[in-house]
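This part of the workshop introduces the protein records we will be handling. Backbone structure tokens are a discrete shorthand for how the chain folds in space. Once this layout is familiar, the rest of the handout is easier to follow. The record below serves as our worked example for the rest of this section.
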Amino acid sequence: MSAVLDRPPLPDAAALRRPAAARMAWLGAGVAVLALLCVASAAFGVREVALSDVLAALRGDSSDVARAAVVARLPRTALAILVGAALALSGAAMQAVTRNPLADPGILGVSNGAALAVVLGIAFFGLSAPYPTMAVATVGAGAAAAFVYSVGSLGRGGATPLKLALAGAATSAALSSLTSAVLLPRVDVMEEFRFWQIGGVGGATWERTATVLPVLAVGALVTLAVARGMNSLALGDDVATGLGVDVPRIRVIASAGAVVLCGAATAVAGPIGFVGLVVPHACRLLVGPDHRWLLPFSALVGASLLVGADVVGRVIARPAEVQVGIITAVIGAPFFIAIVRHQKVREL
């Protein structure tokens, strides 16, 4: 089976520029939207809380019921912000490293690699401590990423976007099946991770959020540190090398940051797909492809997307709730199809 994916020519430098004022305006709008979504996250759930009660609860002046509802929702809001930002940063970095518009932790099987590693650790080694769990998830995510890139690089043309997407989809399905095979005979473990496999931020606590924060901060700093180098990768390896860029070093550092972000986010919230695919593409339309702007803006929009998805999941099925992994899949699947059609896949 052969595949050909036509890539549009790189735009000239003038087309890549965005006025700094426009970027700052979008950044301010993103902060405002995130703030509004955080208020909505505190207000909506099984029991609705009026805006006045939300503000009063934050001051400690509301009724006990309203205050309890708001206080219980704040940790999951904070966790949704961290996980959404981490997955969006991870996706943007993967797209830069692979020069693949279809790259995403879920599509490339990285999230499912982390999930399988965590399930294996719990089922066979009694893994429970948070930091070892995140370490195991990171190792699983890295192994899956390396495997997918190796398979996608086979044959003529090397690691083309379509070959990586196909290799990632096949690997993701295989890893998901292996995870189910490990869980099925173990009812206790399966019950514990039944909702975790879908991906969600329910049951979040401040302790859980505080545990994952330093790991995600390290991954984000590593990724942001090579933002300028990611811009050079878009020119191609030969051109970037000619400009004095250490291409292998940039790729390794950016990949390491992306894997840490994805692994830690998956360990704490489960495999949530499509955030890393949808958000970077949307952000490029607003602030351009300069990763010095794209990465932080992607983190902001990713946080907003996951908080919004969590709110929608709580509202549409009350008194039950729909996990955010399902909401992001509903949003992301049509977006994925649109990207594939836009890239003009001629043969498969």
The longest strand covers residues 345-347.
